[in-house]
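Long-time lurker, first post. I've been practising inverse folding by hand and with some scripts of my own, and I keep getting stuck on stretches where the structure tokens seem ambiguous. Below is the full token string for one chain I'm working on. Before anyone asks, I'm not after the true native sequence, just a reasonable design that respects the backbone. If someone could post their per-position residues I'd love to compare against what I wrote down in my notebook.
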């Protein structure tokens, strides 16, 4: 089986196409990619040759109605536009994205589009539901070929069946989409707004090539035994100078909580997303008090040189010590002269300065900007990472309404699932939603959080009920999640915050300790193993994260230091 597969893959490689077709295809895009399909009769047109991998590949698990899993390794460096990629995230809705784990869900954008996800290959980006049927696989020879296959996956709500695959070949850099089975159509039909997209786009969503969007053109609807290839140019004169802000404080630029008076190390990353070296340019950082936007902190770094594709983590020299609780925005912006893509120069992160006891929240609304619900059963959640541990959750708050009394499940979940997604259930209860208002749910017994973060969620089994309040106008935290048949980052998390809060306090008898990720700890409570030995002689005791008393340090990490009846969480380094 394997030998036959490898021979067949070699036959697919087309190092020298007879010519670049001038008819029956599409493109070029700004970079020079063209597409050609097997419905076209001309030299160089692809031939449909399905390669089944569902017995030799790796099955991708964890997929639901709307979610993203990964990353997965291609096994090699694949040339894509003017850069190379080596790993991908897989969206349950029929696409992959190189190094972008943002969810694409209905309504689906056409390509190219600067809105995330970017760096997309979309053989059938539409409302699929692998959680209710079919399977998804990938296979790589770890040299030059990778295949990703959706096998017999239905549409959401309307059924049908779709089997299609992506084949990436390093030898010729051609991208191949193939369709073995296509039965049925997405919810609302092919022509409904945002129903579907087939195409490719680059890392910033400024360059790409669309084969079909929302059923148009109708002669490009996917069908059984169809093959499409996307052919890169043999050479290009395309020049782009572009320096992007890649993230702020954490890799997803997700909102953070800071304890009042803590010292904050401001950091992020920038990426040369152009194809020319960039030299001697500034990167700015501002902290603004919101909603007024008053600058309360500023710093600037100077970057010497960065090669195309390079990602550089940066740490600003000055430290910010917030003395007042409330909402803040942390902005990082690149200042490359001649930057050709200004919309990716800056990222804003929401920061909330709090003290205990208090509320962890991403909005300050008494009433919502809008109310959101799902066509079917579903719900929403919010992710919180406390600034100090241990803390305990004594109450959660959800803003919601229903036209008739509607029961919902209220959950507190640990963020110990894959990629810090919802995992272990820490608390579960039921409440009934009716009048539009805040619903306050007392948590008894209180849930204690010793490390990491947690989710608060509300889930209904009733279609369209209840509706959840949303903040749609203020700085988004990117910490809102959605639940349909599984948890996933909310499809508009970069725009909306669900109105869900958590009331927290310090655990009585435990001294406050300096906050954990995404902030740096106070150096006074980072100690070497030898320092612990000296404290041990003075009568201090040490406990691991499971509450077990220990006599010696086996590894670096978090520990609890006990002095008399008080505990303090510390980091110990070798």
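-- Answer (accepted) --
I ran through it position by position. Result:
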């Amino acid at each position: 089986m394997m030998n036959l597969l490898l021979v067949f893959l070699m036959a697919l490689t087309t190092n020298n196409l007879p010519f670049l077709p001038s008819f029956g295809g599409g493109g070029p895009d700004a970079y020079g990619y063209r597409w050609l399909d097997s419905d076209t009769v001309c030299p160089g047109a692809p031939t449909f040759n399905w390669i089944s991998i569902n017995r030799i590949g790796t099955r991708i698990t964890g997929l639901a109605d709307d979610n993203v899993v990964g990353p997965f390794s291609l096994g090699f460096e694949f040339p894509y536009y003017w850069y190379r990629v080596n790993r991908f995230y897989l969206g349950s809705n029929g696409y992959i994205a190189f190094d972008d784990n943002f969810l694409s869900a209905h309504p689906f954008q056409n390509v190219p589009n600067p809105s995330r996800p970017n760096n997309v290959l979309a053989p059938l980006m539409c409302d699929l539901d692998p959680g209710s049927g079919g399977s998804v696989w990938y296979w790589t020879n770890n040299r030059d070929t990778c295949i990703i296959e959706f096998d017999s996956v239905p549409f959401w709500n309307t059924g049908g069946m779709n089997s299609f695959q992506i084949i990436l070949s390093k030898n010729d850099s051609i991208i191949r989409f193939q369709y073995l089975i296509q039965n049925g159509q997405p919810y609302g039909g092919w022509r409904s707004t945002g129903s579907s997209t087939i195409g490719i786009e680059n890392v910033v969503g400024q360059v790409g090539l669309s084969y079909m969007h929302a059923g148009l053109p109708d002669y490009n609807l996917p069908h059984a035994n169809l093959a499409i290839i996307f052919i890169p140019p043999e050479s290009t004169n395309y020049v782009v100078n572009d320096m992007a802000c890649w993230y702020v404080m954490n890799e997803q630029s997700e909102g953070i909580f800071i304890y009042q008076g803590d010292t904050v190390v401001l950091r992020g990353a920038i990426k040369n997303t152009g194809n020319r070296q960039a030299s001697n340019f500034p990167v700015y950082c501002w902290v603004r008090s919101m909603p007024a936007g008053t600058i309360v902190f500023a710093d600037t770094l100077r970057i010497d040189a960065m090669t195309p594709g390079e990602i550089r983590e940066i740490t600003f020299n000055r430290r910010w010590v917030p003395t007042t609780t409330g909402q803040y925005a942390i902005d990082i912006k690149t200042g490359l002269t001649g930057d050709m893509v200004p919309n990716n120069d800056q990222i804003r992160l929401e920061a909330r300065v709090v003290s205990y006891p208090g509320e962890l929240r991403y909005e300050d609304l008494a009433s919502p900007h809008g109310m959101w619900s799902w066509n079917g059963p579903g719900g929403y959640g919010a992710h919180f990472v406390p600034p100090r541990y241990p803390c305990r959750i004594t109450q959660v708050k959800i803003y919601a309404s229903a036209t008739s009394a509607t029961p919902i499940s209220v959950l507190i979940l640990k963020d110990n699932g894959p990629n810090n997604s919802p995992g272990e259930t820490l608390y579960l209860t039921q409440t009934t939603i009716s009048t539009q208002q805040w619903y306050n749910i007392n948590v008894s017994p209180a849930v204690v959080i010793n490390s990491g973060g947690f989710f608060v969620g509300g889930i209904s089994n009733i279609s369209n009920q209840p509706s959840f309040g949303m903040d749609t106008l203020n700085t988004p935290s990117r910490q809102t999640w959605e639940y349909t048949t599984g948890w996933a980052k909310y499809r508009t998390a970069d725009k909306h915050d669900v109105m869900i809060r958590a009331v927290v306090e310090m655990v009585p008898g435990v001294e406050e300790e300096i906050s954990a990720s995404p902030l740096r700890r106070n150096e006074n409570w980072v100690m070497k193993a030898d320092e612990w030995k000296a404290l041990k002689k003075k009568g201090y005791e040490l406990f691991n994260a499971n509450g077990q008393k220990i006599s010696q340090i086996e590894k670096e990490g978090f520990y609890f230091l006990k002095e008399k009846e008080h505990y303090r969480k510390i980091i110990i380094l070798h």
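A couple of notes from the structure itself: The two ends are 51 Å apart (CA to CA). Confidence is low (pLDDT under 50) at residues 1-23, 512-524. Happy to go over any region you disagree with.
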